[in-house]
Amino acid sequence: MSTDSDERKVGIVIIGRNEGQRLISCLDSLTGLLTDVDHIVYVDSGSDDGSQSAAEKVGAICLNLDMTRPFSAARARNEGWRYLTQHYPEIEFIQFIDGDCLLKPSWLQEALQQIIKMPRAAVVCGRRREIHPEKSIYNQFCDDEWNTPVGAALACGGDALMRVSALQDVNGYADHFIAGEEPEMCYRMRTKNWEIFRIDVEMTLHDANITHFTQWWKRANRTGFAFALSAKEHGKGSERFGVHQTLRSLVWSGLLVSILLFSLFSPLLLLALFIFPLQVIKIFLKQKERSLYGLKSCLFLMISKFPEALGVVELIIKTLRKQNYTIIEYK
Predict the structure, then answer these.
(1) CB environment 129-149: b (16+ within 10 A), e (fewer)
(2) Where residue 14 sits, what CATH number does that domain have?
(3) Pairwise CA distance, residues 45 & 28, whole Å
(4) Pick from 137, 179, 185: nearest CA to 301
(5) At CA 162, angle to CA 158 and CA 168, rounded to 5?
(6) Digit-coded pLDDT (tens) for 75-110
(7) Are 41 and 133 part of one and the same domain?
(8) Residue 257's pLDDT is what?
(9) What pLDDT shows up at residue 5?
(10) Which of 155, 161, 233, 277 would give a disulfide with 111, using CB separation of 3.0 to 4.6 Å?
(11) Burial degree of 117 (CB within 10 A; 0-12, 13-18, 19+)
(12) What's the pTM?
């Protein structure tokens, strides 16, 4: 990047673990940006598929995460941005991207223009899309999940442009957050009067590659764990961060277990199970666009409360036993 006083120094941090071809595609999407980016760091979490060599071929600095400690995306991102700021303190902004994503060519310049205009903006993110939403309904769910409202936001996802001074102000991600690390860090940024913005610009293409129900279930399980950990860490604050989502999962799951348990003594109580399809219909009727897909999404939204609740229970058990939080993988 030019050293003109009007231009800003930018670094990129990529994280990955056995992403294979997805990582190669990710790196290829960055090749056109090499004149606009000062340094690229790839942080690998114990890959055995040659990911490090692929990153080195495009000139990225490769870091290997210490696998003697429980690894997480949060730890990997921290390793990357701290390396950049320690070795290249002139860097002002860092673009984070997951190794299963492709960066859109116009994104970086658009995002830089926006974040420079807003001195209290810690994070600017855009539209993340699924590469193959047509492959499964679960991929389509992910694509919908990424379609967050434009404007001031509460959080971002794994791909985002961040201001280094804001990262330093909150000491980056929380290493022990094995999921939900971005909302948690954004929460801490917001408590220090930093702002998060989602702009109406195409940012990345993501490859969730969720083709089976069991993968979707595991991902929902991880989400519940993240809700519970957020509530444990920050639930006493004025925002009650993570508390509502945690209680919602527990209440619906507890209701199901209670109905099934008491129906052993009074089978008529099984009629109470109709509350679940009625809730699905209630959610569906609140939607602006009603379709078969919309009905399915409402159904899976209700079903997700049960694996989420299992994630909450897992967090409680591990906390009571003082065990390390280990990553919950769905790929």
Answers:
(1) bbbebeebbbbbbbbeebebe
(2) 3.90.550.10
(3) 20
(4) 137
(5) 110
(6) 999 999 999 999 999 999 999 999 889 999 889 999
(7) yes
(8) 94
(9) 31
(10) 161
(11) exposed
(12) 0.90
Q: Which of 211, 242, 269 is the C-terminal boundary of a domain?
A: 211
Residues 90 and 194 in one domain: yes
Nearest residue to 194 (alpha-carbon basis) of 159, 170, 175, 161 = 170
Number of domain units in the chain: 2
Residue 164: CB atoms within 10 A of its CB come to 20
Residues 195 and 72 in one domain: yes
**Which residues lie closer than 8 Å to 153 by C-beta, 6 or more apart?**
125, 186, 196, 197, 198
Does 127 share its domain with 249?
Answer: no
Number of C-beta neighbours around residue 178 at 10 A: 24
Cα(186)–Cα(209) distance, integer angstroms = 26
CA distances from 111 to 2, 69, 118, 124, 167 (A): 18, 34, 11, 6, 17
pLDDT at 165: 97
Contact in structure between 235 and 129 (CB atoms under 8 Å): no
In a shared domain, residues 132 and 264: no
Q: In terms of residue numbers, what domain contains 229? A: 217-320
More confident residue, 126 or 61: 126
> In which band, very low, low, confident or very high, does the pLDDT at 33 lie, cut at 50, 70 and 90?
low
* Beta strands 101-103; 93-98: pairing state: unpaired
Output the DSSP codes for 303-317: HTHHHHHHHHHHHHH
**Cα distance between residue 312 and residue 242, in whole Å:** 11
Q: Which two structure tokens, joined as six digits, stand for 261?
A: 């348990």
